[in-house]
Specification:
The protein folds into two domains: 29-144 and 268-295, 3-Layer(aba) Sandwich (Rossmann fold); 149-267 and 304-330, Rossmann fold. Helix content is 45%, strand content 19%. The protein has helices at 2-26, 43-58, 77-89, 100-109, 149-160, 177-192, 204-214, 228-232, 234-243, 253-257, 270-283, 305-310, 315-324, and strands spanning 30-36, 67-73, 94-98, 115-120, 139-143, 166-171, 195-200, 220-224, 248-250, 262-266, 294-295, 299-303, 329-330.
């Protein structure tokens, strides 16, 4: 009697497992494209992609099991356009786009494949969405900067380096945010008594020439506004700022962990976690047009205390800069002794 019950029970288990296996085999493998504005082997690219993949896993999407992820990354505009076309040709279910410089070519390449963007400063001004609340097309995502932050950069730079009278502003005029960020800084300049000099970012040789020429003056400082080009050249920019003893403020934390003085801007990792949530919703049937563009929820001030000391900034200057940045999540970096 017990033997017959056991065999019958085993048969039920086998039946359930067989049905489950067939369901998994019959489920279509979903495809996700990822295009970043940094090269694939950049440590920032690796860190951000890893967070995105891990966040997808937590939502039940596992690369190689029920999704396939195709990664591309480039800083050269021609390569970006090439990779955008390649990803669209693969007919993915959704594409994650990192940065204004790569979202533009993707939006031009397709009006049907869903796009979730991150690290985009002005998606409305760039023409990616109709409005933040109702994107209206095939793209939506997460905006990282507000133009008003430009004025805060100048205030913080003056707080940590009070002697600064001249400030060079590195910007990318090829993106809509470049001139707009400079305008916000320009509006603040008279109230803090500084003279501004716009420097257009280009290749490494152009950056080196421009900064070398500018650094010959005294009481000089530097603001690096948000752009993929600046991030790609962050090691060169921070090293030159240190070489010429230019107090500099940057738009993202990676500059400061690489030796830069101070940064003020949104958390660079959090949008990739949140983007995984939008990708999940799209894979489950929702439309980008119905998902509002979200703005940064966490802003951080990071000060490299070792660099501050080498530039002659006192602990009091650093503390004053910290107070000036009010209502943010503080993250202080002290690199080295």
């Amino acid at each position: 009697m017990r033997r017959r019950i056991f065999i019958a029970g085993l048969g039920c288990v086998l039946t359930v497992r067989t049905v489950s296996t067939h369901a998994q085999q019959g489920e279509r493998m979903r495809r996700i494209g990822v295009l970043t504005s940094l090269v694939a082997d950049d440590r920032e690219t690796k860190a951000r992609n890893a967070v995105f993949v891990q966040s997808l896993r937590q939502l039940g999407w596992i690369d190689g099991q029920n999704i396939r992820i195709d990664f591309r990354g480039a800083t050269n505009p021609d390569h970006v356009r090439q990779y955008a076309a390649e990803l669209v040709a693969l007919a993915p279910d959704v594409i994650l786009s990192s940065g204004t410089a790569v979202t533009g070519p993707l939006v031009q390449a397709t009006r049907t494949v869903p796009i979730v963007f991150v690290q985009v400063i002005d998606p409305v001004g760039a023409g990616f969405v109709s409005t933040l609340s109702r994107p209206g097309g095939n793209a939506t995502g997460f905006s990282t900067q507000e133009y008003s932050m430009g004025g805060k950069w100048l205030e913080l730079l003056k707080e940590i380096a009070p002697s600064v009278k001249r400030v060079a502003v590195i910007r990318d005029p090829s993106i809509s945010a470049g001139p707009a960020q400079f305008a916000a800084i320009q509006a603040m300049a008279p109230s803090v008594g500084v003279e501004l000099s716009p420097l257009s970012i280009g290749d490494g040789a152009e950056i080196e020439h421009s900064l070398s020429s500018y650094a010959s003056g005294s009481n000089s400082g530097l603001i690096v506004t948000a752009s993929a080009s600046a991030l790609a050249h962050r090691e060169l920019i921070t090293s030159m700022a240190l070489r010429y003893k230019l107090p500099a403020i940057y738009f993202q934390r990676p500059f400061v962990t690489g030796g830069g003085l101070i940064s003020y801007g949104p958390d660079v990792i959090d949008p990739y976690r949140r983007a995984a949530g939008y990708v999940d919703r799209i894979l489950r049937g929702e439309k980008p047009a119905d998902l509002p563009v979200q703005q940064a929820t966490k802003v951080e001030l990071v000060i490299n205390l070792k660099t501050a000391q080498s530039l002659g900034s006192s602990a009091r200057d650093a503390a004053r800069a910290r107070r000036r940045g009010n209502r943010i999540d503080w993250m202080m970096s002290a690199i080295g002794p």
